[in-house]
């Protein structure tokens, strides 16, 4: 088996192989936004696996910016389009592609990689840890009274096709301070590539403006048979979020509102007069994070609490084992190798899980994945983020 990087000439066979892996017909662009996903692909960042002159596996990466705790923007390689032909599964094709791809990313100086998984059991073995979650909330309009006072802001409803620039501007401002958020390249907005709202598929967009007329939030939605479904609500602050939620809940001809992709511990449910009126469902994994260079990754993020901790980190996929002393002072960390006794012994995938502050180290100790040598209070305080990380970009 040979693994090699791709060029633009590989696009057709890449698309065909990936679609065969998924059991779907290759999509061609259409007026409703179908097939546009491929228009954003960057073939100079792909890999293919070949046996006997035949392409049997695919993978690609996007150059994203990931927001780390402390509103730090860091480069992160977003892996996607991973597929292996059904005839070649469980023969190590993905493993070989991952080894090649992670090695190439490291050589090019990347220190973080991220992905969304089709199945939660695949990527932990390659050192990716589950870092963010998403939830769906359904509110019956008849029981949707708020306890929270909502400031009536100026809301304008636009068609998706009219709203590209304003959506891009609002999203870009939001993602710079939200831990776990990914950049959305301008090219994607311009193409309407990907899933809603970066798609040409019909959507209404409620745009909220502040007292000066500056756009500071949006909700993209469709109304179908009494159910108003919001793909994403992006808001400069919680008051704007509340105004957009109220707009949806007060819409005529609506019996229920489905908020897709509500962040973990979001106050929306507590805004309701009756907590039980906002049940969540569809809790699922979202962003997986892989640290490719532990000291660089740990010193890149911002830290809320001063202190020091010794981490014994095992990276079985890359065959590495290091012990680090992490020292945080004034929000900045230093990370050096040490022989001191560790506070935590953990797999690099578990370091990926706690890196953005979405899961406390003590939770992974309780789950039996991380070993604590003493109290976990210090580790929990250190790894905390200013708010739970959240990502709603789909790629
Ligand atoms: C980021 C993204 O793009 S997500 C998209 C992922 N792609 C898909 O879901 C498309 C359909 N599936 C596929 O194409 C393939 O089955 C893949 C890519 C998931 C796996 O490719 P394979 O070449 O079969 O994987 P490979 O043989 O290297 O397996 C490595 C290990 O992962 C395990 N594994 C592979 N797929 C899965 C899975 N879906 N669930 C759980 N474990 C899995 C294997 O059992 C193996 O375990 P082992 O090391 O203990 O023996």
UniProtKB/TrEMBL annotation:
Q: Tell me the leader sequence span.
A: none
Domain of life, per UniProt, equals: Bacteria
Drop me one GO molecular function for this one.
aminoglycoside N-acetyltransferase activity
CDD domains the UniProt entry points to: NAT_SF (cd04301)
> Where's the N-acetyltransferase domain?
1-153
For the ligand (acetyl-CoA), the binding residues are 82-84, 90-95, 118-119
The UniProt record lists the keyword Glycosyltransferase: no
Name the UniProt key words of this record, in alphabetical order: Acyltransferase, Transferase
Catalytic residues of the enzyme? 123 (proton donor), 395 (proton acceptor)
Give the multimer and partner information. Answer: Homohexamer; trimer of dimers.
Recorded family membership: Belongs to the acetyltransferase Eis family.
Name assigned to this protein? Predicted acetyltransferase
């Amino acid at each position: 088996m040979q693994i090699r990087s791709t060029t633009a000439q590989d696009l057709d066979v890449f698309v065909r192989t990936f679609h065969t892996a998924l059991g779907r017909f290759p999509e061609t662009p259409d007026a409703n936004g179908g097939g546009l996903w491929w228009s954003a692909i960057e073939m100079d960042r792909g890999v293919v696996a070949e046996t006997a002159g035949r392409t049997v596996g695919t993978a690609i990466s996007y150059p994203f910016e990931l927001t780390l705790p402390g509103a730090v923007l860091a480069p992160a390689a977003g892996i996607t389009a991973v597929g292996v032909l059904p005839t070649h599964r469980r023969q190590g094709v993905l493993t070989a592609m991952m080894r090649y791809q992670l090695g190439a990313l490291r050589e090019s100086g990347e220190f973080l990689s991220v992905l969304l998984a089709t199945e939660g059991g695949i990527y932990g073995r390659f050192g990716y840890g589950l870092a963010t979650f998403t939830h769906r909330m359904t509110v019956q309009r008849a029981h949707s009274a708020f306890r929270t006072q909502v400031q009536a802001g100026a809301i304008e409803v636009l068609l998706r096709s009219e709203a590209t620039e304003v959506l891009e501007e609002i999203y870009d401002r939001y993602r710079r301070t939200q831990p776990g958020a990914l950049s959305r390249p301008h090219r994607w907005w311009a193409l309407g590539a990907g899933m809603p709202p970066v798609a040409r598929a019909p959507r209404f967009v409620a745009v909220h403006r502040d007292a000066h007329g500056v756009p500071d939030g949006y909700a993209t939605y469709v109304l179908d048979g009494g159910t108003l479904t919001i793909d994403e609500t992006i808001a400069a602050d919680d008051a704007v979020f509340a105004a957009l939620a109220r707009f949806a809940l007060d819409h005529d001809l609506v019996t229920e509102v489905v908020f897709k992709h509500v962040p973990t511990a979001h106050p929306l449910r507590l805004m309701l007069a009756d907590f039980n009126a906002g049940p969540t469902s569809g809790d699922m994994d979202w962003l997986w994070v892989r640290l490719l260079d532990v000291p660089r990754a740990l010193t890149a993020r911002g830290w809320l609490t001063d202190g020091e901790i010794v981490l014994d980190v095992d990276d079985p996929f890359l065959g590495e084992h290091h012990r680090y002393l992490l020292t945080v002072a004034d929000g900045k960390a230093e990370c050096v190798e040490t022989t001191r006794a560790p506070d935590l012994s953990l797999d690099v995938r578990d370091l990926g899980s706690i890196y953005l502050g979405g899961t406390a180290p003590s939770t992974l100790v309780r789950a039996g994945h991380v070993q604590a040598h003493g109290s976990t209070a210090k580790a929990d305080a250190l790894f905390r983020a200013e708010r739970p990380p959240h990502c709603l970009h789909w790629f």
